Every structure is written in C-alpha cells, then in structure tokens.
Amino acid sequence: MEFFLHLLVNGISLGFLYALSALGFVMIYKSSSVLNFAHGELLAMGAFLFLTLTAWAELPIILSFALTLTGCFLLGFIVERFFLRPLIGEDLIQVIMLTVGLAAMFRGLLLFIFGGDIHKYPEFLPPELSIKLDLIQIPSVYVATFIIGLLFLLLFGFFFKYSSQGIYMRSVADNQPAALSLGVHVRRVFALSWAIAGLVAAMSGIVLGIINGINVHELSSIGLKVFPVVILGGLDSISGAIVGGVIIGLLETFTGGYLSTSLREIIPYIVLVFILMVKPYGLFGLKEIERV
Amino acid sequence: MTKRKLHFSLCGNLKESYEEELTIFETDFGRLWLCIGIVILLGVIPFICSSYWLYILNTIGIYAIAAIGLNLLIGYTGLISLGHGAFFGVGAYAAAILTTRAGIPFLAALPLAGVITAGVGMIFGIPSIRLKHLYLTIATLAGQFIIEYVLVQWEGLTGGAEGIPVSNTSVFGIGFNSDRSFYYLIFCSFIFLTWVMVNVLRTRFGRAFIAVRDNDRAAEGMGIPIFKYKLLSFGISSFYAGYAGALFAGYMMAITPEPFNMFLSIEFIAMIIIGGLGSVSGAVFGTVFIVSLSEVLSIVTEFLMNVGPTTGFAVTIAPLREFVFGLSIVLFIIFEPKGLAEIWRIVRSSFRLWPFSY
Questions:
Q1: Distance of CA B100 to the CA centre of its chain
Q2: Model's pTM, two decimal places?
C-alpha cells in the first residue's frame, strides 16, 4: 500500500511536470498550428539561463527568476520573428523541419557551453513546504511544483478568458480568416503566443531542473515526451494537456514500479500509437471532420 | 527504320506529346554525360582514390540509397516519416541476423533485409489509413522509439546493447571485404535502385503518388485507392532504407543499436530537404552535402583539438556538428526551400542560355 501511494504521488507530480511542459507546446499549436519540435530545447534554454544567473552570477533567486522569464519571453519572440514568420503559408514539412533545425542549433549551443553533465541549482526551497501524510512524505520540491503549476494554470485560464490579448489569441485559433477580417492583428498574436510559450517553457524548465538536476539530453527528451501527452489530451486543448500529462505520468511510474523499468520509457509511445489508431483527436481535441 | 537525329540542346519548351514530357533525358547531351559519369564512377574513381576517400564515397552511396527512398515517401507522396533511422536499423539487423544466425550469404541477405524492412515500414504506415499530416508524423516518431526499444531489449535476437557481428561469406568466389569491393557493390546497387526509382515515378504508380500528395481527396475521386498507394509508398521507401541499412551492416562488419537513433532519422530528412524535395538528383546532392559537412566538421574539430592544449581552447565534435547541422537546415529552408537541386538547375540553365539568360 505504501509503495502504491508512493507511486501515486510520484506519478501525479511527474504528470504535472509533463502538463506544464506541454502547456507552451499547446499554445503554439493552438494559435499558429506549428508542431514545435524545439520545445524541449526551449525548456533547456530557460533552465540553463536560470542556472547561469543563480549559480554563476549569484543574483538573488527572485531577480534571476524574473530575468529568466523575461529572457525566454524575448527568445520566443525572436524565434517567431526571424525564423517562423518567413514560413507562414509554407508546407508542413518545411515548418516541422525548421523547428527540428532550431532544436539541433539550440542543443548544440547548450552542449557547447555547458557540456553534457548534470548541473544542480543551489538549494533555495524552504524545507517547511514538505507535507507529511500518515504514510508518506511529500518532498518540498513537489509541493512547490504543484503550487507553481496550479498558479500558472489559473493565470492562463484568466488570461484567455478575460484579457483582450487572450481573446484575440482564441479567435485566431478558432478561425484565422474571420479573426483577420475583424481586425485582429494575427501576426502579433503569433509573436505573442511564441513569446508566452517561451516563458512557460522557461518556467517548466526551471521546475524540472529543481527536481532532477539539469541536463541537456534529459530536457530535450522531455520535449519529445510532450507528444504522447498532447495527443492523448487533444492537440489544441489546454485542459487536455493537463489531464493527458497526469495520465501519462501515472502510467509511466506504475509501469516502472510494477512491470519493468526499461518499459517505462517506451510506454507513452505505445499508448500514443494506440490512441492515434483509435481516437486521433484525443480526449478533448477539436474534431476536424474530413473523410477520405 | 528512320534515322534518329541527335538532340544536343533545346532552345525552348518544344514538347508536343505527353510521352515527350515523361522522358528522362531532354537531350542526348544528358544521356552522354550520364554514360561518361558512370564510366568515371566505376572505372576511374576506385583506382585513383585512397581508402579514406573510398570510405567517404561508400558512406555517401549508402545514405543516398536511403535518401532516395525517403524522398519517394516525403517528396512524392507527401507523408512525413520520422522513423527512417529506425527502418535503416531494421535493415541492418535483418542482414546481420540472416547472415550470422541463418547462414544466408550476404548478397542474398541484402534484398531479403529490404523486404523485411518493407514489411515493418508498412506496419508503421497503417495509421495512415486514418491519419494525415502531422498526426502521421507523430505516429512515425512513436515507431522510431518503439523500434529502438526492441533493438536494445530483444537480446535473444539482436544481442542487445552489445550488438551483433555480420558474417560476410563469399558467394561464387566474390567476397566483400575491402573498401574497393564494397564500393562496387554499393554503387552498382545505387545505380540500379536509382534507375528503378526514376522509372517508377514515370509509371501510373508514380503519378498516383503525386496525385495523393497534391490532393488526396481529389485523388480518391479520380479512382486512386489512396490507402493502398500510401502503404505501397511506405513499403518501397522502407525497402530502400532497409537495403541501405543492410549494406551499412555489411560494411561496418558489426552493429550496435546506437547509430539508428532519432538523430539519424532527422539527418535523412535534412538530406532530402537540403537537396530538394521531390527530386531524385536532389536526394543525392543532399546526401553529398550532409556527409561532406560532417567530414569537414570532424577535420576542423580535430585541428582545433590539436591547437587546444596550447591555447586552452578545446572543442568536442558532437555539439559543433549538431549546431552547424541545425543552422544549415534552417538557412536552406528560409533562403532556398527548393534545395540544391534548384540551385543546380539555375546554374545549368544560365550556362545553357548564355549570353541571353533572360
């Protein structure tokens, strides 16, 4: 029973991390229908920027956190402006390969500067955050993850529901020509969605780094793990990303705990193929009806 | 029998029938150049090149076969596969297992490995019955990971992470154990497979693939069973990948699951993007570009490593290679999306039309 609870807690927190990572991915897909293969590298950029600011420049945590988020916000903006904007209206393969090329560039750059080793952040979370239930102890990082994740999800919920920019973004996602004809600045929406995705990616990169230590390969493989999560939840649904993340996280830890540890890495992809065959638009995705 | 006149250059688009549109060589000039090219390729190069250069050419030949196959899938049928690195690996493992476990001679194992890979590729092509575009791409991504997992974990068959040797027995006194003999094997296969590909594209199959790419609903409306053709495209393209993988296995003499990762899949796609989608010669240009790029980079890093101890500046090959690689993909997509084949066409036509090149 204790083992089961332990796996449950681990699975849910892992799932939350996946959900958080998938959030930025879904934002980009929702507004500009770009499948971003460089998402893992965006996470890594954020995580390493934070590392540079805290461990090497030794700035206070809050300041370096704010600086990292701003930096990645700008990074997302730059990526959209210089790399993706020339490709608006091009074939899918060109756009996909562009993000793959960007991923290789970022990964090469990070490996060149930081190497492939695991780096650690200095300890800064207060230990009082950890919760002790009667059977198990939940470490403070998980609690912090949970709080940060929840905070951001609420923030995004409100942003999309009430702010004018959020409403513009939803309108572009819903019907681009209609939004354009009603005077929505579609290019600005694309730029903004990349910038926000960069910000969210930096956030989740930092959280992942606090838990596992930061490593370029690890973070870029999480960027690919996002695919099973978003396909399960539905490519264009934010709540789907959360549900999908938690399901995949639980699946992974339980497979690792009860079946075999090597199967753990691959089980999300097996599920992915299964979902694609049975219900390709996922649990909450928008169904585009097209019969051929 | 009427005497046929030789055509050397055309002063415009003078085609009058559909057959003329379908010809491979517009002028006899091209045919002549091809003959000269083949003679140089098979008769001159193997005797003047050092074994290092032969090694590079062999690598180019092996990858070019796989790239031509992938180009059929992506460039002509419009289905994006991120699993070709793994299919290449399936071919390599099939050849290794057939030669060592079943004792089949290497030459016979080559096409068999291709057929096995075609089967595996078609299994991962099945999702295309319902999925299009990016959903299919994601499905092949999953295929890549699943195949990689099987190659590492099915130790009884594949030897796990330690790998498996490829036995290379000779048939009828023809053994393949030197760079030069492999050169002949690789480039004869390359010429044959390219010939097959160019001609498949002119038949109704090739036209059906292009119709599926351009508009699959219209293709269905014209009576092309699109699922059948999508699967066929997956099959042919995986056959090429598997055949190339088997050549790779024979050439390397022992294989491990390591090289057949996601990066190889991306490398294959980069080859055909940089070369030019939907062009057989483009796939070859792209392969030459990518292989030479990584050779140049390894020479550069080696040079920097030797300078390193004195200046305190040392670099490792992998990050630099990845960076330059990504950069070249990005630059090609933004500035010349039609790739090297288009650049080649422009250069050629400006020579042909000189001095009135407009």
A1: 26
A2: 0.86
Q: From CA B84, how far away is CA B260, in angstroms rounded? A: 9
Confidence band (pLDDT; 50, 70, 90) for A115?
A: confident
Q: Are B134 and A96 within 8 A, CB to CB?
A: yes
Contact B324 A280 (CB under 8 A): no
Classify residue A78 by burial, with Cβ atoms within 10 Å: 0-12, 13-18, 19+: middle
Domains of chain B and any CATH numbers: 50-166+177-352 (1.10.3470)
Q: DSSP alpha helices (H): ranges in A175-255?
A: 176-181, 186-212, 216-233, 238-254
CA–CA distance, B63 with B290 (Å, rounded to integer): 10
Q: For residue A153, how many C-alpha atoms fall within 13 Å in the half-sphere facing its CB? A: 20
- Spatial distance between the Cα atoms of A4 and B196, rounded to a whole number of angstroms: 58
The Cα A42–Cα A291 span in angstroms is 36
Nearest partner of B87 among B112, B119, B109, B55, judged by Cα: B119
Judged by DSSP in three states, B278 sits in: coil
B330 touches chain A (CB under 8 A): yes
Residue-range domain boundaries for chain A: 19-231
pLDDT for B2: 59
Strand pairing report for A137-138 and A131-132: antiparallel
On whether the CB atoms of residues B276 and B341 are closer than 8 A, the answer is yes
Closest CA to B128 of A48, A131, A30, A276: A276
The DSSP bridge partners found for residue B159 are none
Report d(CA A39, CA A96) in Å as an integer: 12
Q: What's B105's DSSP letter?
A: -
Residues of B in contact with A92 (CB under 8 A): 80, 133-134
Say which DSSP state B10 is in.
Answer: -
CA distance B216 to B208: 10
Averaging pLDDT over each range in A213-217, A260-264, B60-64, which range is the top one?
B60-64
A105 touches chain B (CB under 8 A): yes
**For all residues of chain A together, what is the average pLDDT?**
82
Which sign does the torsion angle of CA B249, B277, B326, B321 carry?
A: positive
Number of C-beta neighbours around residue A292 at 10 A: 13
Q: Are A208 and A21 in contact (CB under 8 A)?
A: yes
Write the burial class of residue B227 (CB in 10 Å: 0-12 exposed, 13-18 middle, 19+ buried).
Answer: middle
A163 min Cα distance to partner chain B (Å)? 31
Asked whether residue B1 carries a pLDDT value surpassing 60, the answer given is no
DSSP class of residue A138 equals E
A277 interfacial to chain B (CB closer than 8 Å): yes
Name the token pair of B22: 């379908």
Of B131, B269, B322, the CB nearest to A108: B322
- B268 vs A: CB within 8 A: no
Going through chain A in order, the beta strands assigned E by DSSP cover 131-132, 137-138
Which three-class secondary structure state does DSSP give residue A122? coil
Give the N- to C-terminal CA distance of chain A in Å, as an integer: 50
Could you tell me if residue B50 is left (phi over 0), alpha (psi between -120 and 50 degrees) or otherwise beta?
beta
pLDDT given for residue A167 in this prediction = 87
